[in-house]
Design the sequence.
């Protein structure tokens, strides 16, 4: 299977290119456990973070920062 070529965000169809880019990263991370990715910051934007939040398991235990999903959700309205 050949992955779609990564394109920059902010252009027409960027939602699709963002998704294919993130899928490519996910697949590479699964195959190459010791690979270290560089410059992933450019893939972060409001839409990517909002989608990640929607897909997040809100009933999961708090993370290493001890913040629950409920506490985190309370801060989302401030932005």
Sequence:
């Amino acid at each position: 299977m050949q992955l779609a070529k990564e394109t920059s965000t902010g252009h027409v169809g960027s939602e699709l290119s963002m998704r294919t880019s993130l899928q490519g990263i996910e697949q590479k991370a699964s195959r190459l456990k010791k690979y270290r990715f560089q410059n992933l910051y450019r893939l972060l934007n409001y839409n990517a973070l909002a989608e990640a939040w929607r897909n997040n398991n809100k009933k999961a235990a708090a993370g290493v920062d001890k913040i629950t999903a409920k506490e985190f959700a309370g801060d989302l309205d401030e932005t």
